[in-house]
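Lab notebook, bench 4. The sequencing result for the construct came back, and we need a structural model before the next group meeting so we can plan mutations. Quick request posted to the team channel:

Model the 3D structure of this chain.
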Amino acid sequence: ASCTTGRVELVPAVLPREWHVNHSAGRTVFGFVLFFSLVLALGFFVGQHDGEVRAGNDAADRTSQDESGPQKQTAIPLQKVSERKSSSVPADLKDLNGKEFVDSLPSLEALARRGDMDALHLLIHRLGSCGNYRPASDEDIRAAEETSYQRQREGVKSLRASLNGRPIDPHFSDESLLQAHEAALKAAFDERDVCTSLAPRQIEERFDWLRIALERHDRQTILDAASPGGGIGSGGIERVRNADKLNAIAQIERSELDALIATGDTTALDRAAYAFGGDSSFLFQRDPALAYAYAYAWTLADSSGNAWQRDAMKRLMEQLAGGQGFFPPLTSSEIDRARARGLSIFQSCCAAGVRN
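Done. Here's the predicted structure in token form:
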């Protein structure tokens, strides 16, 4: 299950289709693609409801040799997977508040070194939220969350108007927005408790934990890393300072994402389309033609029957083809090549069957 909660933002231009909650300083965003005319806010997000698949399942599916062969070198050595957690750490890690997380950090690190994926997920997201954290007072936190909440309400109001009476997704109900606001406020205070209590060295170790999880072929981490922030939280000057680490992680993530797509995982296709289709990924540069290919492959592979999601992906393709910001429109030949590439991706990954 997901370990994190945080600010939920409505990003107007191109939003991922899932409800995504994350602690990163870049803030979290709704997990749905919306196409309506508001100013671009934070970028894509993506949700974590599909991240509930436990790590060991995917590792066994794709690389059983990882369990028996030597592990790749990492800054933090892995030991044998622990069969149960230390008695000093609650069984349900997602319930740890900020102070409890800080107090439990030594035990969590020990669990993560032994390969406990729940502990790894928690470390990645909690430490990632501190990557470029700036301390704020109670008043500033409440004001920022209230501003975000009101912006979300206005965004949903515009969305309802644009739907011309068609049903709106339940995640955009007034009740859901209020619950998300309350969760985001609590998470913001928890984030402050964590980030103001840790040493820079402890925060920097998020890169090591992320790399370990990726090298274990953990599906949740692969999907999360393709999302905005992705538990990394490296922005601005820090992104430049950590360029070498981010580039190394990006190479691993790209390989793991494509390997996951090769299994017929349509969620991985979805994440790839948005990761390369926007400017909010800390790992990947925007590549409209590549994003279009992944999006087209997704439209061929998707068997969910969810018309809303299909419409959202088609809108993304239209935006990629039409150009955005400093990116010019794709030419007709570029679109043809992207569609051919998307067809090839579909034929190699998903023609025989898919999984969501």
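Residues 138-162 form the longest helix (25 residues).
Will bring this to the meeting.
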